[in-house]
């Protein structure tokens, strides 16, 4: 187990170090610009976003004891999409505190919907399954409003929105990262402090409560902090599909279910996984802006199937 | 510091049915209270009420005079440790991790937690299980690990819900010997059991009189007695609706359930 | 001041603008295009650099453009693009937008004469009004699925709405309602237009394909247009273009509106 | 319970009977056409699709013991979308056996992906969670390929795809229903025969096996028949969101979890729920073709939240 | 029809560890085989192997001479009924539904199933629980319902994994009396238990000799004996590592576990 862990971490470090140099050749006079203003910021963005999303996925799966739980389950992603769509379709071309409106709106949408669910989670007699249902309900509502907004969009807006919903990582310079980083940091650090409590959750909520875990507080903190991180990532990069679902499952299968391993390793593996996907996206269709979600799934699917097949044989 | 658990006049209703009616109870460190009663008498409900996991519809539960609902879960965990009737672990964490998790209430490093967890596992002779996934253990092995988790919590009052379930006779004996040790070392014990005889393993000669027995039946207190009371057999027979024959074996009184010989 | 012609390197992220640039004869200045650009055929050899909301910065940087032009879509991240090169964003929705845009593109590419001529042509053609007794025409956007699951029509105030009027027809939807330009099948019965034209973007259709596209409409036997056989396809590349090809669309529409006076 | 059941059925019957007459006024000379060629076929379609989707949702939730399980969980919806997109992009202008290619392709896609999952379900040592993971993986793969296809689509194709994915019910005449009905019937009747087996599943798979249930066969049959029904519905109407998720939860909360009640009632309630939504869609934006998924969510969300809130108070 | 369950030379390995090694066993209708052994001895594993839920790495399991793996689940359910050590019901179905579900192997109407389920519930005195959600029952009540489900399956061989778990003394007595009835009515019983004394309730005078006792320890057969064998106490003491004192109470031999008095 220990050797596996070390190998995994080494691979991750290597991927991150090499990634910025992977891609179509750079013309010598644009080299510095491409490397320092485009590739490195973008790699950093992938690091931050991949790590945050994966951690949130791992936390939600633990919290809901459900392998299908993900930010999209409790409406975070749907809220972000809704916000972004509203901004695209209804929004004026203004910026807010130097933020593009679309970013701000996605952030607000994600946080808004998740906080509704968190508010329900604060209830006294609420069971986890009730929360899952409430999450479905809010996702559904946000999804429906999004459909409504799309329905009333004209085609140029729709095309714009469509690309947004595929997720993207492109960055010029460091401004976005500087804005996202504190949000992501609060989310990641906050969630990691919940590791111990989530470990206790494994033996049932009531038992955990009797062992000193404030179940309601942990629920609210997990959902709130998770939503914060996801809202940030989605606001800047659109909904990057599957990372939050697939990375925790991979870590769980390879390194085990102990929360103390699962949560931090999800951050590390998720971060470098997205960096890898981004680098691969640069080479498979050089010159095109391949949506990174495509590569994520293309790499993740066979890996997950292999892990499932290996275990059950 | 005295850690006194006091349940007074607890009543729990569920729709029409009263699951618990006007039950009172005191457990202080050094006390040993055995709760007996037939299936569905409300024993587990009483324990959940005492732990603050279920709010009583009437009555109060206090720990050291403070309402149990007003304590933070961590404070409460510092007073009360619970062994549930059915522990359900949903994922294959190792036994060690499961026990270490029970030390949540302590603000300590993970290494410290694991050390203490190993000690606790050793006390139930389950060191060998430490690194095995808990979902792959046998019923009895799981129960032993659950007891280790209870020990690891180091609370002055322990609440045990049929701890001997799933355990083989040797393990039962060991377990009750361990509970006895804990008791004599000053802990308060509230123990639900169907088998009053196993309590014998918990005591040394002379301490019988200090084991209190609370009989529950249909949510009400049916009797309050002591382990050495001469009429305990009758009481037990009455709540369980069997004949309880007390026999002397090696200076110990053992109750043997006999059918009422209806129709024979 | 626009830079020298030979050194202009333009990236265009809007298909309509791209078309205009080529129409103005500034095609050789274009070094990068949006993923959606497909006309004229020369565009095939020009690198594609993403779309408005997700441009491929690295590809654009590698092209070392001197100007990036995009059509104004709400929320486009023009800010970060300007780190690569000056950015020009043009509104491109109404006839006036397009005419002004053409002139602006002329200025930017040093093709002012051609631009003025084209802009004028666009203005004079598209601002023609239909006679008051012109047929009421519903112009709908065709759907490859060829089902009547959702019918999207052309608004009066849009570029294609102007093209329809320029072709000598009144828009069956007399004033633009708020909300999406979508009409239910039931509502068609109330509108009951004289003629229905279906715009199908893409290569020319074979007769079978045309028949298939029209088949669902033929089911709506209560509609006047259907009864009189006045449902037609307007198909071909560029029928949904927002560039100068819109002028060809006017002609196509005119041709489509010529029915034999006798009903089949 | 019995009275509740009767009330629910009566309400359902009423809804279905009244629905065709709900809507904006009909011009007198088009009245017959609108009623008999538009509204009634469309109501029938809603009946068939709503019933089938809800039943499949209920079966999947039972099978996976997961409140989040749905046809989308095991890749059925993703497969259908993929098929439809491929058809749209690679030339939807031809027809196959009188079927629009897009319908046939969506059907094939849905069935194809689900059958992969069903094949995994046939494995000997496969746990339910493994199946869920495999489903996620295939959904993901199908989703990624869809993204790729969209990425290479031109704008007109993309708009078509976008509108297709909103789901739709409109019908002219009875041809589509006649084609869908046998498929849906096989699926619904087949799934209903599994009711007893699914009831046994509640007490654990091994226990069920010991009580005579052929667990692997039930799994495969459920997934296969479910996929068939969903594939049919999605092929003709696009992915109508949420019905399969929300209806079983509502039935479960109101009428209880017994499979003998849950499954048939999901059919009935789902059918009339979708009919209701369709009728409502006609009046909220008269003259427009409002996507029915919008109304589904708009009606379903508050209902679900109410049911969650009522129980936990 | 004879329904003979035969396990021969069953071995189960998990990685390095042997969970079961070369264990053989025969249960025919009319037999009563008690399996005893300490926690983790492999008793549950043996039962799962016998049921065909776990394939042995070596050895064979046959029912009526046919390999258990070759039987369809339904055929097998007609021979073998199982009471698992931990029944986990995931949803709040009623007790009646749970028991009725156990009649899956019969091709009969739901009404018939429910009638039979009610009869089965009555046999464990749990009619009153019929319409209660099973997740809300107390531990012992759940166990009684599980036994009712076992009865409802009407198999000629029943496999019980610690059926007295969670039950109060009266219920234990009733349960074993019931098992005894089933046995005398011709069923074959394979019963895992930690408490050999409860077997007494299963028999009438004179039938002791017909109860076979199989001792397992660390996956191997430690002894094979009979309930009335004089050296049973010693055997038991050895596998459980306790002293087993047999005492006579009302003409019945009762074993009382005593610690080995280490260090006393
Ligand atoms: N959530 C609940 N809702 C309704 N009734 C309940 C609930 N929980 C328990 N009960 C009922 O309350 C009664 C007391 O249950 P409790 O679990 O306290 O019994 P117990 O004395 O622990 O029994 P056992 O020895 O079988 O564990 C039982 O009849 C049980 O069915
Ligand atoms: N899936 C598994 N993987 C690995 N080891 C297992 C698995 N299941 C059981 N074991 C181990 O096999 C041994 C025998 O287990 P089994 O459940 O048969 O014991 P048992 O005799 O029923 O014990 P108990 O009386 O405690 O129920 C135990 O040591 C247990 O830890
Ligand atoms: Mg209890
Ligand atoms: Mg066992």
UniProtKB/TrEMBL annotation, chains A, D:
GO terms for molecular function: transmembrane transporter activity. It comes from the Bacteria. It is a multi-pass membrane protein. It is found in: Cell membrane. The chain crosses the membrane at residues 44-61, 68-90, 96-119, 131-153, 173-194, 261-285, 291-309. The keyword Transmembrane applies. SUPFAM superfamilies: ABC transporter involved in vitamin B12 uptake, BtuC. Gene3D superfamilies: ABC transporter involved in vitamin B12 uptake, BtuC. GO terms for cellular component: plasma membrane. Keywords: Cell membrane, Membrane, Transmembrane, Transmembrane helix, Transport. It holds the Pfam family FecCD. Belongs to the binding-protein-dependent transport system permease family. FecCD subfamily. This is Iron ABC transporter permease. It comes from Myxococcus llanfairpwllgwyngyllgogerychwyrndrobwllllantysiliogogogochensis.
From TrEMBL, chains B, E:
SMART domains: AAA. The keyword Lipid metabolism does not apply. Residues 5-239 form the ABC transporter domain. Keywords: ATP-binding, Nucleotide-binding, Translocase, Transport. Transmembrane segments: none annotated. GO terms for molecular function: ATP binding; ATP hydrolysis activity. InterPro entries: AAA+_ATPase, ABC_transporter-like_ATP-bd, ABC_transporter-like_CS, P-loop_NTPase. It comes from the Bacteria. The keyword Amino-acid biosynthesis does not apply. It holds the Pfam family ABC_tran. Part of the ABC transporter complex HmuTUV involved in hemin import. Responsible for energy coupling to the transport system. This is ABC transporter ATP-binding protein.
């Amino acid at each position: 187990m220990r050797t596996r862990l070390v190998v995994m971490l080494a691979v991750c470090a290597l991927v991150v170090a090499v990634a910025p140099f992977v891609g179509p050749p750079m013309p010598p006079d644009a080299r510095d610009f491409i490397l320092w203003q485009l590739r490195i910021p973008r790699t950093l963005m992938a690091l931050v976003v991949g790590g945050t999303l994966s951690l949130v996925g791992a936390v939600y799966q633990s919290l809901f004891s459900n392998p299908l739980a993900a930010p999209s389950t409790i409406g975070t992603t749907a809220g972000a999409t809704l916000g972004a769509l509203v901004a695209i379709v209804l929004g004026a071309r203004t910026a807010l505190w130097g933020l593009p409106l679309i970013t701000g709106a996605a952030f607000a949408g994600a946080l808004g919907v998740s906080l509704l669910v968190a508010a329900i989670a604060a209830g006294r007699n609420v069971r986890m399954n009730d929360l899952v249902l409430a999450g479905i309900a809010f996702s559904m509502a946000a999804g429906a409003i999004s459909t409504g907004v799309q329905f009333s969009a004209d085609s140029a807006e729709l095309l714009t929105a469509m690309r947004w919903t595929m997720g993207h990582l492109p960055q010029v310079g460091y401004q976005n990262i500087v804005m996202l980083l504190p949000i992501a940091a609060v989310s990641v650090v906050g969630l990691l402090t919940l590791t111990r409590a989530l470990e206790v959750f494994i033996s049932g909520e009531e038992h955990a409560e009797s062992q000193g875990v404030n179940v309601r507080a942990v629920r609210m903190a997990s959902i709130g902090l998770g939503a914060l991180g996801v809202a940030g990532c989605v606001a800047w990069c659109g909904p990057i599909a599957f990372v939050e679902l697939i990375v925790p499952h991979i870590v769980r299968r390879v390194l085990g279910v102990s929360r103390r391993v699962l949560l931090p390793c999800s951050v590390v593996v998720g971060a470098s996984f997205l960096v890898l996907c981004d680098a691969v996206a640069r080479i498979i269709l050089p010159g095109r802006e391949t949506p990174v979600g495509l590569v994520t799934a293309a790499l993740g699917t066979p890996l997950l199937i292999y892990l499932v097949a290996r275990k059950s044989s | 510091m005295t850690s006194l658990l006091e349940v007074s006049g607890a009543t729990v209703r569920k729709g029409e049915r009263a699951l618990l009616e006007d039950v009172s109870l005191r457990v202080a460190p050094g006390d040993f209270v055995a709760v007996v009663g037939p299936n569905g008498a409300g024993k587990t409900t009483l324990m959940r009420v005492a732990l603050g996991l279920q709010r009583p519809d009437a009555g109060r539960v206090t720990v050291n005079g403070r309402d149990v609902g007003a304590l933070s879960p961590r404070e409460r965990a510092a007073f009360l440790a619970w062994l549930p009737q059915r522990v359900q672990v949903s994922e294959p964490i190792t036994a060690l991790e499961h026990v270490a998790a029970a030390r949540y209430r302590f603000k300590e490093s993970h290494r410290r937690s694991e050390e203490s967890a190993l000690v606790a596992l050793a006390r139930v002779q389950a060191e060998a299980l430490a690194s095995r996934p808990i979902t792959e253990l046998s019923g009895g092995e799981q129960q032993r690990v659950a007891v280790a988790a209870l020990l690891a919590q180091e609370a002055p009052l322990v609440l045990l819900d049929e701890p001997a379930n799933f355990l083989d006779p040797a393990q039962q004996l060991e377990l009750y010997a361990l509970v006895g040790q804990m008791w004599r070392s000053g802990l308060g014990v509230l123990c639900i059991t169907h088998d009053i005889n196993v309590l014998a393993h918990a005591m040394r000669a002379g301490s019988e009189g200090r084991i209190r027995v609370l009989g529950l039946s249909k949510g009400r207190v049916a009797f309050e007695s002591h382990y050495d009371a001469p009429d305990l057999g009758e009481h037990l027979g009455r709540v369980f609706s069997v004949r309880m024959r007390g026999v002397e074996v090696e200076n110990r009184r053992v109750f043997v359930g006999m059918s009422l010989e209806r129709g024979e | 001041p626009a830079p020298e012609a030979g050194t202009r390197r333009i990236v265009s992220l809007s298909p309509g603008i791209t078309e205009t640039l080529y129409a103005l004869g500034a095609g050789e200045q274009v070094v990068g295009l949006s993923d959606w650009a497909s006309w004229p055929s020369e565009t095939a050899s020009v690198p594609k650099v993403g779309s408005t909301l997700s441009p491929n910065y690295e590809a654009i940087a590698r092209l070392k453009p001197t100007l990036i032009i995009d059509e104004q879509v709400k929320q486009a991240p023009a800010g970060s693009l300007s780190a690569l090169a000056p950015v020009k964003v043009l509104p491109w929705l109404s006839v006036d937008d397009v005419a002004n845009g053409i002139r602006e593109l002329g200025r930017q590419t040093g093709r002012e004469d051609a631009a003025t001529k084209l802009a004028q042509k666009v203005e004079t053609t598209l601002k023609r009004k239909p006679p008051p007794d012109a047929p009421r025409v519903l112009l709908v956007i065709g759907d490859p699925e060829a089902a009547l699951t959702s019918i999207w029509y052309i608004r009066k105030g849009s570029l294609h709405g102007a093209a329809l009027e320029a072709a000598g027809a009144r828009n069956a939807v007399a004033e633009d309602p708020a909300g999406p330009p979508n009409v239910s099948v039931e509502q068609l019965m109330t509108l009951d237009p004289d003629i229905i034209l279906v715009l199908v973007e893409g290569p020319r259709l074979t007769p079978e394909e045309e028949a298939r596209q029209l088949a669902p409409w033929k089911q709506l036997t209560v509609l006047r247009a259907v009864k009189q056989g006045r449902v037609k396809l307007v198909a071909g590349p560029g029928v949904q273009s927002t560039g100068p090809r819109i002028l060809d669309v006017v002609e196509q529409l005119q041709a489509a509106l010529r029915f034999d006076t006798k009903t089949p």
